[in-house]
Backbone:
């Protein structure tokens, strides 16, 4: 009974974070802002729903495969987000005009100027 | 009661695909489309997991695992292609 209530609670938390990520994907102005919103469904949304399924069915084959999928997404989703944001910045996708600082661009330009001075 | 919650969450997941398709079609740059495609794949993985739990069949979970692996490899490949111009 306690496990059932906990499973429903974690499922609702995961669905709430999926909703937040979809809202951010539709509404935010920039590729980096959208990436910041959609990375949450990899960690909190998918992990929450899969953990809810594990709590619901126990250590049956469905539960073990669910926690395997959850751990795989938990490991690989931040790596994919980091790779695609780095590729976007080096490909020349600009920031939105409300953003106030660009540390990675400054680091890149200063590294390039140092290399040119040598 | 419990299975009703799972079926409502399936309907919610189907609705959650719509902003991803909107962003894939409209997104101004290529990384926008890649981000939306990654998010849509994770939504489909979660949908397959819930459907597997509703049907009581463990085979949909294998489909979800393979789809997660293919999404990761595809995102890394497109990122490396955008960054350096070559894949390997």
Residues:
């Amino acid at each position: 009974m306690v496990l059932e209530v906990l499973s429903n609670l974690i499922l609702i938390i995961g669905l709430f974070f999926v909703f937040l990520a979809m809202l951010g994907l539709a509404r935010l102005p920039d590729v980096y802002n959208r990436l910041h919103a959609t990375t949450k469904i990899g960690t909190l949304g998918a992990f929450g729903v899969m953990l809810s399924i594990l709590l619901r069915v126990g250590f049956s084959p469905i539960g073990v495969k669910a926690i395997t999928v959850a751990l795989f997404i938990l490991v690989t989703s931040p790596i994919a987000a980091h790779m695609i944001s780095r590729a976007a910045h080096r490909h020349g996708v600009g920031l939105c005009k409300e953003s106030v600082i660009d540390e990675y661009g400054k680091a890149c330009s200063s590294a390039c100027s140092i290399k040119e001075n040598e | 009661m419990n299975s009703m919650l799972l079926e409502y969450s399936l309907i919610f997941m189907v609705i959650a695909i719509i902003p991803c398709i909107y962003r894939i079609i409209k997104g101004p740059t290529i990384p926008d489309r890649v981000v939306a495609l990654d998010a849509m794949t994770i939504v489909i993985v979660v949908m397959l997991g819930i459907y597997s739990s509703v049907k009581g069949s463990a085979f949909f979970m294998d489909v979800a695992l393979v789809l997660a692996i293919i999404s990761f490899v595809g995102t890394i490949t497109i990122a490396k292609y955008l960054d350096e111009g070559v894949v390997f």
Remarks:
- Chain B touches chain A through 46 residues (CB under 8 Å).
- Residues 2-84 of chain B form one domain.
